[in-house]
Amino acid sequence: MAQVHADPATADLAELIADMSDRTATGYLFGGLASARNRTLHIADAVLGGGLSGVAFTSSVGLVSRVTQGCQPVGRTRKVTESAGNVVTKLDGEPALECLLADLGVAGREPREVLPQIRQTLVGLSDPADRSADASSARRGAFGPDARVRHLIGLDPGRGGIAIGDQSPEGLELAFCQRHTEAARRDPVRICAEIREELTPEDLPLAATLPGGGIAEAAEPAIAGAVYVSCSGRGGPHFGGASAELQIVRRALGDVPLVGFFAAGEIARHHLYGYTGVLTVFRA
Fold first, then answer.
1. Hey, where are the domains in the chain?
2. How far apart are CA 216 and CA 58, in angstroms?
């Protein structure tokens, strides 16, 4: 595994991330894009612009990583069946624009009449290989860990199409979604619980009976520290106050060393995400 920091202005960044992932034994990267008000830089023995920087870990360093989504699907997952570049014209053989209006509950309306709702809508993309996990998550009202959230950047009423902020080849899975505060607050608790469960030694009971009938404290997972990377678009207001997101993670994960940063896009495995948090824990 490797922790990486990337310059968002780098050409073909998604391909570069995928290539870097292929160079690791596990295929897993975690980190994010540098974020700044002015010039974006990152540091790796020097102040740099462009490309990736970071640190690779040997197999002796135990790591567990999870992605938390900040958006919630507003409709079912569909397959892209006709597209050109970043313009999707058919979903499951139906006009993509009609699918969008149907999922927003405004089927039959003119798009210009419901622009406020459309402007609040994003799209979650996932690869066909991830369909089983993402589809089951969508039924629970949440995205799976491999869904990438992208902006809806335009409409094409003439062709019944939609334009999104990413390439959308045929066969890709797509679900419309919206930023959702309650879902964003619940999901970090879920991933922290999953990590704690994975790190709890299997040979220790969650609670044990002591001589005399007392109950021992539950076994605690062995965590040396954690890194949390969150989208700069989430921030305090999305969670109810300054540092609220970090406080949620800290309460759910426990009293462990925790650092991190806000990013202009998050990296997990070989994907570039948006509106997410990536939590990575080091085993003691």
1. 2-69+182-207+219-283, 71-179
2. 35
- Bridge partners (DSSP) of residue 148 are 125
Confidence at residue 133, expressed as pLDDT on a 0 to 100 scale: 45
Query: What per-residue confidence (pLDDT) applies to 137?
Result: 47
SS3 category, 74 = coil
User: How many of the other CB atoms lie within 10 Å of CB of 12?
Assistant: 9
**Rounded to whole angstroms, what are the CA distances from 147 to 15, 20, 198, 203, 213?**
17, 20, 22, 34, 48
* Chain mean pLDDT for the chain: 86
Three-state SS for 29-69 is: EEEEECCCCCCCCEECCCEECCCEEEEECCCCCCEEEEEEE
Work out the number of other CB atoms within 10 angstroms of the CB of residue 124.
25
d(CA 63, CA 57): 9
201, 219 contact by CB (below 8 A): yes
Supply 252's token pair. 């759910």
User: Residue 227 — φ and ψ, nearest 5°?
Assistant: -125, 130
Which residues in 157-202 belong to E strands, given as ranges? Answer: 161-164, 173-179
CATH class belonging to 71-179: mainly beta
Transcribe 200-260 into DSSP letters.
Answer: S-TTS-SS-BPTTS-BPPPPPP-EEEEEEEEETTTHHHHHTSTTHHHHHHHHHH-S--EEE
- Mean pLDDT computed over 216-228: 76
Burial of 17: CB neighbours in 10 Å, binned 0-12, 13-18, 19+: buried
| Residue 43 pLDDT | 85
Identify which of 133, 137, 141, 130 has the alpha carbon closest to the alpha carbon of residue 173. Answer: 130
pTM comes to 0.79
